[in-house]
Amino acid sequence: MGNKSETVEVAENNHEEREENRLESVEQEVLVEDKQEVVVVKKAKPLSRNEEAKALIKNSEALISEVDSEVRETKVIVAQNVANFELMKATISNSTLRESSSLLEQVNFEHLKDEVEEPFEVSLGTGYQNINVPSIRSGRFTGLLLALIGMLVTAVAWILLASAKTASYIQFDKIPDQTQIQNIFLWIGGGMTGGAGDPMFGMATVGVSAFVVGLVIYKMRVSMKENKNFKVANKIFEESNSYVVNQQESKTEMEYVNEHIQECTPLIEGYKILLDEQNA
Q: What gap in Å lies between CA 140 and CA 145, rounded to an integer?
């Protein structure tokens, strides 16, 4: 009987341990899911106008840089093939054709018409002006300067108004005495409403009102700058897309010219071989 009871107790203990482990694993899964949900929320944070403007400018720069790089590579290839074509043309004109003309003159062959040699010219210009992509500035620095100026003007306006109301006129070429300062802040701190007034409350009123004015000016400046940046970035992005389309068209035309030159090159080589055989 003692062995059976011990076996039952061991089985119960094992069952309890398994149950505790299962609960701990469930809690860990819940924590992991909660963490994953938090990460998803952070990723879904909306961009500000300034961040959207910077992203548009960055995309515009990437588009322009990529298409300009492709056009430059195409120009190099076309220019090299044109140079090779001109070299082959000059070689045939100065050797093979000249020898053929000399042989024809020996048999009294007369040219009915003098052919005027026209230069082979290929324009590799795209004809489109490059887009100047501006940098995006947040406007915080100028906003801070304007806010400080607004705060100073607000504080000075309070002091001038209070000095006029209390007849404690301040002379800016002299340092005001303690009585003038106290009268001014007493009026601001409650005297203007008919109360006794408190100088400390008056100082707090001037400080808080100046801070509020400065904050409003700062927020307005930053908001106006963000809206302007967003409009400029959208305009630049649209222009960059048009620029890319135009550059792609120019690249396609240059590739067509390059293909035509590559087709003509073996034909000229064949004519040269044929004329050399005839001259021989």
A: 9
Total domain count, the chain: 3
Tens digits of residue pLDDT in 26-71: 454 444 444 444 444 445 567 777 788 888 888 888 888 898 899 8
Query: What is this structure's pTM?
Result: 0.57
Question: How far apart, in whole angstroms, are the C-alpha atoms of residue 145 and residue 84?
Answer: 62
Please choose, from the candidates 155, 179, 152, 157, the residue with its C-alpha nearest in 3D space to the C-alpha of residue 167. Answer: 179
Quick one: 31 and 94 in the same domain? no
| Domain span holding position 83 | 49-111+249-279
* C-alpha separations of 248 from 64, 133, 164, 244, 255 in Å: 11, 19, 71, 6, 10
Does residue 178 lie in a domain region? yes
| Residue 130 DSSP symbol | P
Kind plus residue range of the DSSP H or E element containing 62: helix 49-91
